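Input chain follows. Return structure tokens only.
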Amino acid sequence: MMKQIEPQSKASVENILDRIFAVRQINRRDQHTLMAALLSKDSLSEKDRCQINRVYEAIQKGLIRIVD
């Protein structure tokens, strides 16, 4: 059973994105948090949505590594 992820504030989503791009790594918790933010009914800015999509594209290209 997966844990329910609490909605994240806009600031924490931005902090997560900044860290991911800085270290070029994403952990499973951050991955779930970003996915929950994308799927939530809370509004994300267009910039944040684009940044999250960039993370997932970079993962697919091997530019960002998933770590546990």
